[in-house]
Amino acid sequence: MRSDIKKVIKKIDTKDWKRIQVEFGRNVLKTLVPPNCVELGIKEVSSLPDPNAAIEKAFLNPIGSPPLEEIIRKKGKFPKELSVAIAVSDITRPVPYKGENGILLPLLKRLESSGIPKQNIRIVIATGMHRASTFEEKVQMYGMEVVEQFKISDHDCENNDLLEGIGKTQKGTNVYVNREFYFSDLKIATGLVESHFMTGISGGRKSICPGLVDVKTIQKFHGPQYLENSYATNLILEGNPCHEEALEVAETVGVDFIVNVNLDRDLRLTQIFTGDLVKAHMKAYEMIKGYAEVSLDREFDIVLTHSGYVGRDHYQTAKAGVGALPAVKEGGIIIIVANNRDFINPIGSPEYRSLIHLLKMQGPDGYLDLLKTPSWRFTKDQWEPEVWGKVLRKVGENGLIYCSLEIERENYCVLPGVCGLDFIKGKRIKASLEKAQEMVQKAILFAVNRYRVKGIEPTIAFIREGPYAVPILRRKSG
After folding, report:
1. Mean pLDDT to the nearest integer, 182-192
2. In 144-256, where do the E strands start and end?
3. The pairing of beta strand 186-192 with beta strand 151-154
4. Collapsed DSSP state (helix, strand, coil) of residue 425
5. How many Å apart are CA 29 and CA 291, to the nearest integer?
6. Domains (ranges, CATH) in the chain?
7. What is the dihedral of CA 448, 2, 409, 355, to 10 degrees?
8. pTM of the predicted protein model
9. How far is CA 1 from CA 146, 422, 423, 435, 437, in A?
10. Which are the catalytic amino acids?
11. pLDDT in tens, 314-352
């Protein structure tokens, strides 16, 4: 523990502080916060008491579309001759695919009962530019029964032999898409609809773009000309260039049917939306906007948040950082609690590691200037450091406290912000709930003291659902 931190945290009296629970992977951390701490959370929404029955009902009553069986009948081929491709999410998204109460088996059984043989059905993992899935991750996501009985492949955005050109979008993007999906007779997209810090919401069209497109399309989709647009943010669709591009690509590809879900804060099913690519997705959007949006009338000095399920690595945790921005004051402090549990690399890809270090060295404006330089060669994962740059612009390098036990101390040197390991003792720290609680508690004490030494009692907020809640600051008129 840094000596300056050790000194200041001893001065804080916490006897009147209150206890909160912070999500940490599959566990929770119990920590104390000042009595004036405001909890910002999504609205209560009931999970489905009988998910299997609700899934069945959703298939029988698709939105803006005929039932799947009718779509199959109208394809002009015998069902046994039809080829089917199903786009699914990878391990970074908590989509409930597995088991009888998941969405995948009921979908597959429906296809088979319509006369489509197993061997004609291909499951394509819409990885975008994420790494390929391991066998264990496939089993964890889709279940052993599906893995053993159906063809499953990861999309590879850099393998031109697996891609097919579909022409240019209105924005001038020359798009290539996964051939296996594109040339299938029946194309189905599945996924989770939640707030998304670039495309407004996930799900629907996003399974195709960026999920199943080529690397150059993803590069443009994640380029500064899109990401620096003020409409490219959580829960905004109209005028959002990322949403518009993704939708145009998905409509050109010709998605026949979607199966999308909403989840509650405990990742339980709250609703299933099947049917038309646009109409069913918009219904899911209306629902998520209704309960994920958190209206604020002020900003806070300190904001505590966490990375949620999605924060398997530092790369994905950017969602929590940028999500907290509307709630924090300029020059304030954001404390992020992250269970970066990706066993391959808790920071991210080698490219991301280099780029996030470049952001740390150049600062957010310098990094963005580099990306906009004509001689800059677009590099995989460059967009996530750009998003972290938005965080740094508002709170500064010392205003971001990043608390993760899975990232070793020597690797923190490439990351922007204050190292969470500085708040606990020892050079080599074994990850445990006890150590995680110590780290987060002392980070809070340190942040509070930074204001108190200036004679300020800081305002503090805790975003209970981390990246899944969307704080929206309502400016007062006049």
Report:
1. 97
2. 151-154, 163-168, 174-178, 186-192, 195-196, 200-201
3. unpaired
4. coil
5. 24
6. 3-35+297-473 (3.90.226.30), 51-291 (3.40.50.11440)
7. 60
8. 0.84
9. 48, 5, 5, 12, 15
10. 130, 196
11. 999 999 999 999 999 999 999 999 999 988 889 999 999
